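can u do me a favor
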């Protein structure tokens, strides 16, 4: 066995096993690297390729994706013929490599054993959805002969369940046997996998535990960065207005064009924020199924979106009563400053009623004459009390799935919102009140202080992490 303490580099783990058992998927998930080639076809990986688990520029651990065994029985027969005792098993494996490097019959065996002979630990992957068979014994025996620390991972790819059949033979060859699904395993289990492997080798205990701790710290940073980006999205969208030229003060076609431009720009803001959040979690260029996202990618102003992410009538009335103010439509006519307020109120009772009426009005519209002639409409900001909750609900739904999406997943991102009561109905009353307080300031056109913007980002993360349900699986 190679002494890892003589290697100043990071721990190296070779992911090995039979062809087409999900080795590359496990590498992709653990390394959080979507560039790893993953395919249901056998033989996708034909040569070793290393992927680093990094924190910033520091390499914490290296994973080696290897080809699958092709002729393990023949390789094992050769090693047994050239080994005199148990003590020289590792040397027999090394000599096999030296003598067969140029032999095409054993190209896969030589490739995958190379990093192990050089001191890499072993993560042996099997598919628990298929029955155990004696053909695997030769693979496991060869790995045992190397003398390197090893762990077995049961990765169920198909619908079958033969995990119990596998545990007895695996436990004879490996000290640790774990189930691990590269597609759906939560982040916490990925961290535990690295921690578990650290128990197999004293010299790797400290660096692998540091790697696990660093991954947890990075995940917290990613969530904080995503929360800050969504907070900035809310500030931008709640304060945005669009100016449209009009032929005269009654130019409804011009107002309609301005409204369309407003909606288009708000949609662009939202899409840009989504792309930034995906990049934060190393999912840059993620393929989203825009036509089937059931709410999150529906038209921002569609009835379906309001139903999925808006507030209920009772929630709007309660918030209006608590604030004692209504949201109305403001229209400035001409250049003389004539102003008409619709839905204004005084007192809690009138405020509640006004808030409900105001929630039906989407956009503030101001029509002004210009000093050189003509008119213009200033549309926005969006005035409905629903609006910030819609933006937040859509952003939080997207954040929940992106942050929990393993990098081995190659399917399009499909989002189905579980709750038709809106995000507000899921949240703790205190959290909801804190968010609404910030929304109210933003909706009235006020800027919020940097500390309040930071607090809004923190509340976004709390809202995203408050969901304890199962996220729809993206296969």
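np, heres the sequence
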């Amino acid at each position: 066995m190679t002494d890892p303490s003589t290697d100043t580099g990071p721990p190296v783990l070779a992911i090995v096993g039979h062809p087409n058992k999900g080795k590359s998927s496990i590498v992709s998930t653990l390394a959080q690297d979507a560039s790893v080639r993953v395919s249901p076809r056998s033989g996708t990986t034909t040569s070793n390729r290393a992927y680093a688990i990094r924190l910033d520029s520091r390499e914490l651990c290296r994973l080696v994706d290897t080809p699958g065994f092709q002729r393990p029985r023949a390789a094992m027969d050769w090693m047994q013929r050239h080994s005199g005792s148990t003590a020289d098993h590792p040397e027999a494996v090394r000599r096999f490599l030296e003598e067969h490097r140029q032999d095409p019959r054993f190209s896969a065996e030589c490739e995958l054993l190379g990093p192990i002979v050089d001191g890499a630990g072993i993560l042996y992957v099997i598919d628990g959805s298929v029955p155990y068979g004696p053909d695997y014994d030769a693979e496991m025996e060869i790995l045992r002969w190397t003398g390197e620390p090893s762990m077995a991972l049961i990765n169920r790819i198909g619908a079958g369940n033969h995990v119990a059949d596998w545990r007895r033979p695996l436990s004879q060859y490996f000290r640790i046997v774990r189930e691990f699904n590269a597609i759906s395993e939560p982040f916490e289990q990925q961290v535990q996998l690295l921690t578990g492997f650290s128990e197999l080798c004293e010299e790797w205990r400290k660096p692998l535990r540091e790697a696990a701790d660093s991954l947890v710290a990075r995940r917290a940073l990613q969530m904080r960065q995503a929360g800050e980006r969504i907070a900035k999205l809310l500030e931008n969208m709640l304060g945005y207005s669009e100016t449209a030229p009009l032929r005269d003060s009654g130019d409804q076609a011009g107002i309609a064009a301005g409204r369309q431009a407003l909606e288009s720009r708000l949609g662009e803001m939202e899409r840009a924020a989504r792309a930034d959040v995906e990049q934060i979690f190393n999912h840059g260029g993620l393929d989203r199924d825009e036509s089937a996202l059931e709410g999150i990618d529906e038209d921002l102003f569609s009835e379906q979106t309001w139903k999925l992410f808006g507030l209920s009538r009772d929630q709007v009335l309660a918030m209006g009563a608590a604030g004692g103010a209504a949201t109305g439509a403001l229209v400035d006519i001409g250049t003389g400053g004539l102003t008409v307020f619709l839905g204004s109120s005084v007192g809690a009772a009138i405020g509640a009623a006004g808030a409900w009426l105001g929630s039906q009005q989407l956009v503030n519209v101001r029509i002004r004459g210009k000093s050189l002639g003509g008119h213009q409409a200033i549309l926005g900001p969006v005035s409905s009390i629903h609006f910030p909750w819609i933006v937040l609900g859509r952003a939080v739904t997207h954040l929940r799935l992106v942050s929990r999406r393993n990098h081995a997943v190659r399917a399009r991102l499909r989002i189905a919102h579980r709750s038709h009561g809106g995000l507000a109905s899921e949240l703790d009353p205190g959290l909801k009140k804190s968010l609404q307080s910030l929304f109210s300031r933003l909706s009235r056109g006020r800027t919020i202080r940097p500390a309040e913007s930071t607090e809004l980002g923190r509340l976004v993360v709390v809202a995203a992490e408050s969901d304890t349900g199962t996220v729809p699986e993206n296969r």
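The chain is about 45% helix and 15% strand. hope that helps!!
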